[in-house]
Amino acid sequence: MSETAGKMDEADKTVSQNGQLQNVDKPVVLSVSHVGKYFRLPTEQATGLKMLFINWTKGIKGYKEQHVLRDINFEVHQGDFFGIVGRNGSGKSTLLKLISGIYVPDAGNIEVNGKLVPFIELGVGFNPELTGRENVYLNGALLGFTRDEIDAMYDDIVSFAELEEFMDQKLKNYSSGMQVRLAFSVAIKAQGDILVLDEVLAVGDEAFQRKCDSYFASIKKDPTKTVILVTHDMSAVKKYCNKAVLIKDGEVIVNGDKDDVANRYTLENMRADKRDTDNDKSGEYPTGLNERVPFLHINALSEQILSRDDSFRFEVEYQYDEPNDYYLAIAMHDIKRGGITYDTGANKIKLSRHGHCKVKFEVPLKLFNNGDFKLVASLRTQNAEDSETTDMVAFTNDDNCCIFAVRDKRNRAYALLNDCALRITMLAD
Ligand SMILES: Nc1ncnc2c1ncn2[C@@H]1O[C@H](COP(=O)(O)OP(=O)(O)OP(=O)(O)O)[C@@H](O)[C@H]1O
């Protein structure tokens, strides 16, 4: 085993064991160890030297430190397609700027071995008063390429950007899409070793995105090129990356397996959506609850990201003190595709315990295709006049329901549950 492979961290080992990572024996091209970054946000301004002195004697700093990144550790090997994922404001762009040498870390260090080409902020290194051609040369020079090197890659850049007819026009006359195309083409066609890209999939029109798509597919196969990609697009992470990290509030919370990272990100987003709804609560009881049923909650008892070999276990926890029998009705919504996937029916689960109760359930996932699901429940009582009918007493809303997701490599994103769920029968004439 090489020295580099000997240095691999726990995440690398895990990933290589489940067969996703092929590059652990390749050289480390980027090493991020114990990196921290904070920004100073001004709180009050001293208006002069005297004020500054008074503040100093009182211990008033005049700024507060916002820790944007804390103890970030990971390694990227040559040939990796490495994803950096996280919600808005989690610190991804700051991390890319540190990797690209735009910022200096306040703690830890970053080692880059190879020529790094960043595409992280549009407009950096471009001058609107210069022509497209001049901008290619300017940008290439800023990236550290010689004139001869830029001459050699110029045609390739222009043809990828499909801007042949516009190269002698000033950049300020380009549409924003054209500017993105040119900047992106310079970044990817420049012969660097490590390409650092921020949200590139979100730029350009559909045709250009398709082109980027096939470019990514080809670069993924090139063992000498390394890509570091920041994206919110989990299908891109699953499709291109062999490794990824998930950053939350400035810390790496998942490191290594790109599927784990993508799944956890989905879960974090689902949780955040739910929290947003929680914050909207008003009145004495949460929506759906009342003095008869002051508490009704669905709790996940299993992991919330599962494969079709798993079962999802959950419990309905509630408070109900009236002496009559009652019913629990449970429905499962398909969050992305819409619609109800399953419904127990209003009077199938009859219960008679009272007080604070918990009832456990299990859903086998064999028949599920990939998707995000929301379980909702209602507590119902028999209608006094019609024994066939139930009346809803309380229901879970978005703040007390439960979510889970099915992610299985064997499954597709079809709307239907399971490939065998639908049978089309030919009818007689
Ligand atoms: N130059 C700066 N000065 C002060 N605070 C900053 C600076 N740059 C970023 N921040 C703060 O650092 C935090 C992380 O920002 P960053 O842009 O790295 O997040 P991000 O994960 O890239 O977000 P997004 O997905 O929205 O691009 C944010 O709270 C942001 O306000």
Automatic annotation (TrEMBL):
<feature type="domain" description="ABC transporter">
    <location>
        <begin position="49"/>
        <end position="274"/>
    </location>
</feature>
<keyword id="KW-0067">ATP-binding</keyword>
<dbReference type="InterPro" id="IPR050683">
    <property type="entry name" value="Bact_Polysacc_Export_ATP-bd"/>
</dbReference>
<keyword id="KW-0547">Nucleotide-binding</keyword>
<dbReference type="InterPro" id="IPR017871">
    <property type="entry name" value="ABC_transporter-like_CS"/>
</dbReference>
<protein>
    <submittedName>
        <fullName>Sugar ABC transporter</fullName>
    </submittedName>
</protein>
<dbReference type="InterPro" id="IPR015860">
    <property type="entry name" value="ABC_transpr_TagH-like"/>
</dbReference>
<dbReference type="InterPro" id="IPR003439">
    <property type="entry name" value="ABC_transporter-like_ATP-bd"/>
</dbReference>
<dbReference type="Pfam" id="PF00005">
    <property type="entry name" value="ABC_tran"/>
</dbReference>
<dbReference type="InterPro" id="IPR003593">
    <property type="entry name" value="AAA+_ATPase"/>
</dbReference>
<dbReference type="InterPro" id="IPR027417">
    <property type="entry name" value="P-loop_NTPase"/>
</dbReference>
<keyword id="KW-0813">Transport</keyword>
<comment type="similarity">
    <text>Belongs to the ABC transporter superfamily.</text>
</comment>
